[in-house]
Amino acid sequence: PPLHRILSLADMENVARQVLSYKAISYYSSAADDEITMDENARAFSRFFFNARVMKPVSKIDISTTILGFPSSIPIFVSGAALAKLGHPLGEANITKGAANSNIIQMVSSNASLSYEEIAQAASPSQTLFFQLYKHENDAIAIKRIREVERLGYKAIWLTVDAIVPGNRERDIKSPWILEEQEKPPKYYTEGEGSADQANVFGTAGALIVNDDRDMTWERTIPWLRSVTKLPIVIKGIQCVEDAVLAAKAGVDGILISNHGGRQLEYSMPPLEVLYKLRRQHPEVFDKMEVYIDGGIRRGTDILKALCLGAKAVGMGRPFLYAQSAYGEIGVTKMVDILKRELLTAMALLGASSVNTLTPDMVERVDWQPI
Ligand code: FNR
């Protein structure tokens, strides 16, 4: 369908499902075990309802913000997801260019299918790129990768901590890599032993997530990373209140509450619920560092609920992969336009004129679930 007929992220995903290969859709859409956590990530949003206020001036609404001090036209960012080339020959560069057009920030995956340099070259000179780090178990190899992205101008390190071993994604494991050019697992940047054979036996994650540091600790890893780089550090993959508090104590610049889109620990708590609990139990954490969530965000109202509960911004993984697979660069820009329109509408109807004025009392958690 022509792009103007795409009204929602669900429409975009439907197009992607028609154009993607069996392998690509299996890898992109799959999650751990019975995919309960993936589904609940999204469903959690339907337990939160707005306390809409009327008679508030909303003729001018400001949805722009900053993430780690870098400007963004809307409080969303690209959560780093691997292998964009599986869905479109231009791969991650589609997302980079779409993000430039939309003035949003892209977090580039350690397992991107283009090199970090190719992605940096696709960016406009003023564009902000963040880097998602899978820390190699060998510190020296990890440092080499950090130096490379520093040199290329990436602006922050997002250390993923929820994927030290690959999750059990059965739909991905069942769907084999076939050895046509488009269907080959691309060159890996993990300096591991990833291979097509390995991917076919252990699933794509089993080939990508190799030689990751499984012995990371708050005491060792955060001071080490601080000593290695001056870039801001965000921990990606916080899944409970306790760890959010420890991250604040460790003095990181931010946390991304995330369960990897349900792809890692099945029955990990939905990020929105963790955010809600954190805001109630430890409001002080939000003054010490920026808090973000990702997982299941598909609508402007989803973004708005997370912001009301204290998130500075929200990430999205699959929607960007689907948008770039379906329409390339312009699909990404269209996706962000849809979310901007949805967020503006929702804010007007909620009675909020700026993202800085959103507060937890604007949403309520209900104990019933709409059908
Ligand atoms: C991911 N994700 C991910 N995370 C990460 O830190 N490094 C990575 O390489 C990847 N790769 C990856 C591939 C694919 C296909 C998906 C779907 C996800 C997780 C990603 O950053 C993000 O946390 C989730 O995608 C968020 O959930 P939604 O938005 O997809 O529901």
TrEMBL record:
GO molecular function: heme binding; L-lactate dehydrogenase (cytochrome) activity; metal ion binding
Places the protein is found: Mitochondrion intermembrane space
Gene Ontology cellular component terms for the protein in this record: mitochondrial intermembrane space
Highest taxon above the source species: Eukaryota
Cofactor (UniProt): heme b; FMN
Primary location recorded for the protein, binned into one broad class: mitochondrion
Family stated for the protein in its record: Belongs to the cytochrome b5 family. In the N-terminal section; belongs to the cytochrome b5 family.
The protein, known as: L-lactate dehydrogenase (cytochrome)
